[in-house]
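Deliverable D4.2, example record:
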Amino acid sequence: MLCVTGRDTNVLVYLKRRLAMCARKLGKLREAVKMMRDLMKEFPMLNVFNIHENLIEALLEMQCYADVQAVLAKYDDINLPKSATICYTAALLKARGVSDKFSPDVASKRGLSTAEMNAVEAIHRAVEFNPHVPKYLLEMKSLILPPEHILKRGDSEAIAYAFFHLPHWKRVEGALNLLHCTWEGTFRMIPYPLEKGHLFYPLPHLYRVHRQRTLARMSSWSPAYGPKGLGGHLLLGCLPGLQLMDQKMYGLCPAFHEVSVYPKKELPFFILFTAGLCSLTALLALLTHQYPEPMGVLARTVVSWLSLPVSFLLDKVEAVLPSSLLHQLSRI
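Output generated by the structure prediction step:
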């Protein structure tokens, strides 16, 4: 009996939520917001449907930023699961107060103000949660239609978020410029994001433990009863330490789409070259100390090999240039 009641409740919430989303698509924003608020008030425990994310998007379209801040104050809690919508909307609201006057040149000379520092920290927090979103918001990567299923902290969630929220970022003057100037600073703050996070769990290389769980969820959830997220897309839960999963393997994104990966910190060539040269020098010194005679023979052989091209070039030069010119050059 309880299972039937729970199923019927899920169906009811799902249908009402879809009606609210249809009203949003038809431009009936106030009606959509009212339906979503009523649902959240009537079923406060069903956060798994992420109705608040759809409410945030509708309120942003209405430019009711105070109401958006009130929703974030309730759902951007340390004990509640995060999403790209929560983190990036919080960053957008903080950037809204400073982005119109923000200039990288001026900021580098006088430093960041308190409000600007808060906005930058919010951007760093959002980028740590999902580092794929900025490239879509800044249109460095082409957008595609959001997939049916999305993976939190993955490329599919970034596509879905940018698809529905890019107009809101463009509407706030200077917000995308502030994002462009500051988002890469996140990787200086967490130099090894795949091993250790700052505000969130890291995204490890190995995710075999989660593969079976995720596939099981995808196979067991039905489109009618499964929890929905951005734009009505089914969410694959945010497990602690979840890796950017091979989304093509799960069919989340089409085959032609190049799935983003977590940016890795690349060492400069000079550091790599210096490390290799020092290692080689130490190895040669150790071998020379242990095997002096064989290493001496090897060194003489290497020197003779290296001198062969030089001798060959000198012979060619002597054959081409007149002997008088060579005599004058030797006197100089």
